[in-house]
Amino acid sequence: MRIQFEKRTDRNRLSGFLIPVLSFFLAILFSALILLFFDINPIQAYSVMVKGSLGSTYALSETLVKAIPLMLTGLGVSIAFHMHFWNIGAEGQLAMGGIAAAYVALFLKDAIPSSLLLPAMFLAGGLAGAVWGLIPAGLKSSIGVNEILTTLMMNYIATLLVEYLYLGPWRDPKGFGFPGTAQFVQAAWLPRLTGRVHYGIFFALAAAVLLWFLLSRTKRGYEIRLIGENPKAARYAGINITKNIILVMLISGGLSGLAGMAEVSGIAHRLYMGLTVGYGYTAIIIAWLANLNPWAILVVAFLMGALLVGGDQLQIAMQTPAAVASILQGAILFFMLGGSIFNTYKITITRTRSKKQGENAHE
Description:
It is built from 14 helices and four strands. By secondary structure, the protein is mainly alpha-helical. It has a domain at 71-301. Strand 2 (192-194) and strand 3 form a beta hairpin. Helix 12 (294-317) packs antiparallel against helix 13 (322-344).
């Protein structure tokens, strides 16, 4: 007997709906077993998580705060994945966007009119992320360096650079020894809608619209998708793959850079320790769970934000170990990603003849 995974040539809408629902249900059951192992009532725990992330205006606003950088980085990596360029570097691109925006706010505040400070930070953050994404794109297109390695390694460089700056030359001399830069002037603060929810949500919504239009309504989007599906056919059709790699990574890195700008300008109003907490890595999971669909990425990022906030509330309200929340998050993601495989592939089972059966059939 031989089991094979074959790529689906047709997409069944019913299975596309049922598989994620079933995966989520199995994840909840499995997570309940984990909670029981720790002597925690699963129903009570889930109630705490839902109430803590969605049960009030404050909880909902905190979920949106978590969702904004996840939306931007998720959208950023998704366009690269459409072309099968594996950008694992959204975390570093986010960090570089935060650094560039902080530089403008800290050192150019007197040289730029206050009304232009936020637009300058927006441009600086997006450009810094784009340039950071351009480096692995150039290496891939010119000498064939594997982009997974370069984007991943560049994450560490950017993360350590952030740490060096807020602990070293940019550290607030009046900060009583706490890590972080001086607070930005108020003109460099991204306006807020409610609670801590800032205008970065509009960046994400606009980015989703632009990506949807680019990928589904333009010739460039068709080229990007064709390169991802069949690079040989794209070359035969005369599509410039190098040019598209560079363009895609400029957009991908730029969106992640905007996430960094929004975090330093909209949340902390300074360059700080909590800037790089794994949003760029979670974005990879979000993009795949959403099947690289810009609209679905917004929804999945919101749900992921709720999961993160709910896990924190579980730890606080029920005095559970920090590892329990992480285990629950990992279990849900494991089942959801596992289930998504069956939307792309179908299982075929074929019975193989033994050697003896083959000889008998021949006789």
